[in-house]
Automatic annotation (TrEMBL):
Identification of the protein by name: Cytochrome P450
Similarity-based family: Belongs to the cytochrome P450 family.
CDD domains tied to this protein: CYP107-like
Organism of this sequence: Polycladomyces zharkentensis
Coiled coil: none
């Protein structure tokens, strides 16, 4: 389908879409695996909504992540110079740069290394729950009071970010996430990106003078070895770890608690059999995928993909949230079942860009949800489900607020 006039227009950014996404995705899957859509700035794109084709796209080497290979792209023309030092990371690179960048940090995110953080994560969860349990009125906003601070504390500890600076990352990461596939919003974040760059510059200088046992010191040491890490790559890597290291886990915890509250029989089962937390987290990742849409890919050369004519420079998007609800792969995909096993979801992607932080996100989700259910009996939503405040982000599936009583 190459006729520009026939492009499907879907407002993926609207609150209405977020609230009704599963019905919209199901209708798209019924019509086909791949659709031609129009982006908000009028660029056509391919949208992949079925599981098998999504897996194929995520592992297709001819779909590239580095937009700078395509100099005619609107996203490059509109990107302010303040963003330049933050776009040279693993999610925007292809081999061999991607391989080199990933190798720099992957040792810190192996399952063995992450398991060593268990005690610290449990301690953080208990401290946050102490504050929530002691709050007047037996009410809380679980995004503000729990789902956000837990992962930001963990990734800040790993990076070596001072405690007093953690909350600022929420504003910075929200600003960047809000620009995903929305070039018209770049202007609004100029000053925040400049503040972020200045902050990181000061932090890097301090760590150069006084290196510690943290990831930033490790990256600076790698930078000094020669051409392994450029200045832009250094900024971009830390930027990516801060955002990817907490933003998706905020959504995992918030979405998970919401799914359990919406399915009280599943929450009761998990309370009775807490050992099911492992499969419960996998089902949360499938049912309410924290990353709903893949980051951008561009066609590197003309080729036919699943019968569709992909042309050089075409934008390709994978609807991960839709693929994880594909009835061709999952039985009763709209049923939330914490005993579902096996559960081959693609919430963390596939192929060389498979999420480096998956072991950390899983562990944080398992601990956070287990401890919450243990500490807060009679947990219930404190708002009408029809007015759930989903974030209007193209990329993410997450709540702005999650008010509860207990």
């Amino acid at each position: 389908m190459s006729d520009h006039a026939s492009l499907l227009t879907v407002d993926f950014f609207s609150p209405e879409f977020k609230s009704n996404a599963w019905k919209a995705y199901r209708e798209l899957r019924e019509r086909g695996a791949i659709h031609r859509i129009r982006m908000p700035w009028d660029e056509p794109a391919w949208l992949i909504v079925r599981y098998d084709e999504a897996q194929a796209a995520l592992t297709e080497k001819r779909l590239l992540k580095n937009v700078e290979r395509f100099q005619d792209k609107e996203i490059l023309r509109r990107r302010p110079k303040e963003m330049e030092v933050f776009v040279h990371h693993m999610l925007t690179s292809d081999p061999p740069d991607h391989t080199r960048l990933r190798n720099l940090v992957q040792q810190a995110f192996t399952p063995r290394m992450i398991e060593q953080l268990r005690e610290r994560i449990e301690e953080i969860a208990e401290d946050l729950l102490d504050k929530i349990a002691g709050a007047p009125g037996r009410e809380a906003d679980l995004i503000r009071d729990y789902a956000f601070p837990l992962p930001i504390i963990v990734i800040s500890d790993m990076l070596g970010v001072p405690r007093e600076d953690r909350d600022r990352f929420r504003e910075w990461s929200n600003a960047v996430i809000s620009t995903i596939n929305r070039p018209e919003r770049f202007e609004a974040i100029r000053s925040r990106m400049k503040d972020f760059q200045d902050y990181l510059g000061r932090l890097f200088e301090e760590r150069r003078r006084n290196p510690r046992e943290d990831l930033i010191s490790g990256l600076l040491a790698a930078e000094e070895q020669g051409d392994r890490l450029s200045e832009k790559e250094l900024y971009s890597m830390v930027f990516l770890l801060i955002i990817a290291g907490h933003e998706t886990t905020v959504n995992l915890i918030g979405n998970g608690v919401l799914a359990l509250l919406q399915h009280p029989e599943q929450m009761a089962l998990l309370r009775r059999e807490p050992q099911r937390i492992t499969t419960a987290v996998e089902e949360i990742l499938r049912y309410y995928s924290p990353v709903e849409m893949s980051t951008n890919r561009w066609v590197g050369e003309d080729f036919s993909f699943e019968g569709h004519p992909f042309r050089h420079g075409d934008l390709v998007l994978v609807a991960i949230g839709s693929a994880n609800r594909d009835e061709r792969r999952f039985s009763d995909p709209d049923v939330f079942d914490i005993t579902r096993d096996p559960n081959p979801h693609i919430a963390f992607g596939k192929g060389i860009h498979y999420c480096l932080g998956a072991p950390l996100a899983r562990l944080e989700g398992q601990i956070a949800i287990s401890r919450l259910l243990d500490r807060l009996p009679d947990l219930r939503l404190d708002l009408d489900e029809s007015s759930l405040p989903w974030r209007e982000d193209f990329l993410m599936r997450g709540l702005l607020r999650l008010p509860v009583r207990f």
